[in-house]
Design a protein that fits this description.
The protein is α+β, with helices and mostly antiparallel strands. It has 3 helices and 3 strands. The longest helix has 20 residues.
Length: about 170
């Protein structure tokens, strides 16, 4: 897949790919958008490399190399120990968080904050209920982002999305 998420022989590549996929979904929701989810994306299915070889696809690009949706993937969506289950749960969880937080309303403008660290995409959103600053680490390494770059944004509670469940409850670090 685009992100490298799969049930691969290499757990590091799988974990890195899953982190990339989660980042893309979170950043899309977090900037006021809704992710375009092609059939199977919510289950972390890879593209079908044989798709273009099927002559029935010649005049139909709607599925953009998406595989047939296997029953096994549908069954795994509730298995949180699998890549399929983890990505499905993430889509559900982040969607629920976006629906619950007024700062993430699609009508609220996003403001890209100054580049204090080229490895971090910083986005601010202002709302009467309180400001929200989102920091997206777009690298494979831990990054720092200086608080003085908040500008006029006020900072209240700090949450790590990787450590908050869909109900907004803090979870224990893995």
């Amino acid at each position: 897949s685009l992100t490298g998420a799969s049930e691969s022989y290499n757990p590091h590549l799988t974990a890195t790919g899953m982190a990339r996929m989660k980042l893309l979904v979170a950043a899309t929701y977090g900037t006021g958008g809704l992710p375009v989810i092609w059939s199977g994306d919510e289950l972390a299915l890879p593209n079908d490399p044989e798709w273009a070889r099927d002559p029935t696809h010649a005049d139909d690009n709607r599925w953009a190399h998406r595989p047939a949706l296997p029953d096994t993937a549908l069954a795994q969506r509730h298995d949180h120990g699998s890549v399929t289950g983890a990505i499905f749960e993430w889509h559900c969880s982040v969607g629920q968080v976006r629906a619950r937080l007024p700062q993430l309303d699609g009508q609220m403008a996003s403001e890209v904050l100054p580049v204090a660290n080229p490895g971090v995409l910083a986005v601010g959103r202002r709302h009467a209920a309180g400001d929200m600053v989102q920091l997206y680490n777009v690298t494979d390494e831990e990054q720092a982002w200086p608080a003085q770059w908040l500008g006029s944004f006020t900072l209240g509670a700090v949450h790590d999305a990787a450590k908050v469940d869909s109900a907004g409850e803090r979870t224990k670090p893995a």
